[in-house]
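>> received
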Amino acid sequence: MKNSKYNIYRHKNDDLFIYNTMSGGVLHLNQEYHEKFKKISADSSYEEQFPDLVENLIKGRMLVPEDVDETEAVIIQSNILRFSEKVYTLTIAPTMKCNFVCPYCYEVNKVYPQMEQNLVEKVKELFKRIKENHEYLSVAWYGGEPLLGFDIIQELSKEAINLFGEKYIASIVTNGYLLSSDIISQLEKLCIKQMQITLDGPPEIHNKRRKLPNGGDTFFVILNNIKKMVELSPDTKVTIRVNIDKENVSHVDKILSYLDDYGLRERGGFYLAPVDNINDTCNSSICFNNTEFAKEQLKFVEENLKRGYNYLHFPHANLGICGAVSPNSYVIDAIGDIYKCWDDVARTEHKIGNIMDDKIPMNKNLTKWLSYDVREDEECMNCVYLPVCMGGCPNQRIKGKKKCLPIKENAEEYIRLIYDLSKESISRK
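>> returned
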């Protein structure tokens, strides 16, 4: 056996922490086991002497067979997932209309109709064609605000359920404002079991950034709807997204108090997301660069831990990269245009076709996605973070940018937090 090339080592006093980017596992070795590990690393014959340590190292993929080329293994496994025909994935925007006016929205000042019935019928036909060659159908409902087109979601969901049964999987990205008790009960029947909702901080911040066209507040309506959602549909996973930039970052941690007050501490997940400069919606004076965001993310994690939230986790391998580079994943907008990435929706220069076409032509907008190959980047291929990143966002890379994951910037500090927590745990015993 040999040490994995995807191990990251950090020393704390006489202890050793090993984080493996393939498994996402973290192993804390005290001084005794640290010495044993050094012996194993220098001479594999010691493996028989320390079977318990070896067992854990193998389990965390920190030890791998001597003859394994890990980089090639990562690429092969990535391609298996990327080109698998088992699951077909669609992101569908039944409408691009929205009931909010968010200042950072890249769709501002644009008007879109709701998906017309002829397009709905075409989507149904697509479902039937997918069924002929694929076992599962996964649909993410998107917008705009998708619940403004709830009648379309209902119609298409029923068709998908009729065709795929239990092998139909669905999620929704919504602002949460329209989540009435009736809609919540319907969502579960429509197999929508995952939901992402955005809160951009405490009410005084959120209400300035995510407001109604008439200027009306939305924070408490959304928070009450989230509470209602987890009570009425406990099997649905609700994730709260917090969009941050330099204007709201100092306030986002206050949202945790409201989650506590509403009994939502253990009823869903949440994460920070940087506001991206898509379509020039912000600039460097407002948006974070990667290093800046990594620091703010770490601060948020520390605040979470202080409040008793279990937010500390290391990313594991994301070998499928992104659906946008798969031949079995597409985005359909409200006028039937087809894209590969939902960040490109409504920018017609990036569309690859229209659902009214009998077949998507092999054009330059499609081939740039399907020919995406992280192996062209030598730096990425030699990077210890390759399994969790796989070259970063393909859309960014295709457009000439490269954006590494925050973990590359703050892994050592994450390990420090684990060390502090382990010491605190020991002191309490």
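>> The chain has 15 helices and 14 strands.
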